[in-house]
Structures are given as structure tokens and as C-alpha cells.
Amino acid sequence: MVSKYAKPADFDAFWDNVKIELAKVKPKFKVTAMPKLDRDNRHVYLFEMQSLGDMTIRGWMTVPINKNPNRKYSVLLGLPGYQVNLDPLMGVDNDLAILTLNVRGQGNSRGPVNTRRDEFIFHHIENKNKYVMRGVIADCLRAVDFIFSRPELRHDQILVSGGSMGGYLSIATASLDKRVKLCSAQNPIFCDIRGLPGAVDWPMSSITKYIGTQPGLTLNKVLANLDYYDAKNFAGNITCSTIMGIGLLDPFAPPTAEFGAFNNLKGEKRMMIFKDLGHEISQAYKNLEGRWMRDAFALF
Q: Which pTM does this prediction carry?
């Protein structure tokens, strides 16, 4: 299954410019210990940073309690689903730091972007240079910058993982930042976007409703903008090892669209298919992800 829609000729240049713009923003990383949240033998930290548009973005980091000050930890960077507030994630791995990121407009990173739930997906969608996902993806890249700023984290062992919008963001982050070594995407949305109208209700229902309120804005114009945000276009630039989990009954991320992204991947890849599931995966996938990560990072 291969998408019949081409990637914009200037797709790579578009995202190179985003990275150049992001690099001009001083990150001002800040880490605050949250001892009252410590549990399960893990320290909890709030981290803050400045991202595209000089917006303050926040997330959580949990690190195993260890008396060795020179201990370095492999990293799992968890990326959020649509309008999901990510809390600190504990885990049971004593050799793994876990970061959970709340991108702009979500969780403890709500602020200048403070939309209603259904409005987030089309926030500034009429302009590809202002669309909310441009900043959201930049927030994910800045989170990788944060990892590289921390001496206790392994800079050569970073896994990005997420489901739904988080799966989409994992693909985009691994595509744009080669410092990511493993990518895990579960039920990623925004795959083969031009094939979504008529195939899914959400997010197209929210987007088309918005188009109807904007004089002169058309579906073709919006789709032309969304070409720069299509997961299958990001996937073509991924070279790291990737796993993907999908449900064949998914009403938001059609399997045919997800295969359009999966088949564009250039690196080592594996697909786990759940024939009786919708927009979800089972524990079997998370078990696979854990084994795969530990094998890749030699965490025995």
C-alpha cells in the first residue's frame, strides 16, 4: 500500500527553516525537583523550556533513585495524544529515565495556545506557517535539545513513543531529529491526509466545519497546507529503527493510510497489527516495545 499523493517539493526546506527558527530561541532550560511526587524509587522533576514563538513548554522527568552520581540513563520520551495531559510516568526500569512532554495548548503547557478541545486541530490551519502543529512539532524537537542538556541522560539512547497524535509526533520527531535512535508509533493520526476526507469522521469533521466559517478558505487550500504535516511525508526521512502498532478497526487512523506512512520508512521496521481493535493497541505491543528497546540499548 503506497500513497498516490506526492510530498511537496519544498517539504524538507520548510522544516529546515522551522529548525533554524527554533535554534534562534534561547531554550532557558529549567528543572525543578518535586520531592512530594517521588515514589516507586524514582525522583520526579518538572522541566520547563522556551520553544518556537518563545512559548514556555513543560513536561515531567522521572529518574531512578541512585547513589552513583555518575550514572547515566537511557531515555524514553513520551509524546502526548490529542488534548491529553501527561503526568509523570514512573515505570519499573532502573536504567531508564522517562520524560513526558506536554506540548503547547495541552496539559501544563496551556497558555498562549488555549483552545477548546475540538478547535486545537484546526488552530491557524489556513496558514501552514502558523498552523498549531508547526509549533507542536518544534516543542518535541526542543525536548530532544533538553535531553542533550542533561549530563545524567544518555544522548545516544533516545526512544520516542506515543499513541494517536503522540504516534504522529513520534514519527515527525524521529524524521526531523537524527539524534533519536528508536521510534515507536501507535495508531498514528495524520497519515496520508489527502485520503482522509470521506474516509474518517474526526479530524476531518472539525476541520471542514472550521473551513465553512472562513470566507475564501477551501478544503483544497487546507489540504495543500497539511501536505507539510503528513506523517507519510515525514516517514520517508526516518532512518532509525521503528515499530508501529495499528488496529484494523480504527475509525480515526485508517490502516491503509498508516501503511502509506509505514511503507515509506527507510530504516529497520516492524508492524504489529490488531485485527479486532480500533484506535488502540494491546499490552502485547507495549511488551514488544520494552523488549525491543532493551535489546537495542543493551539494557540487560
A: 0.96
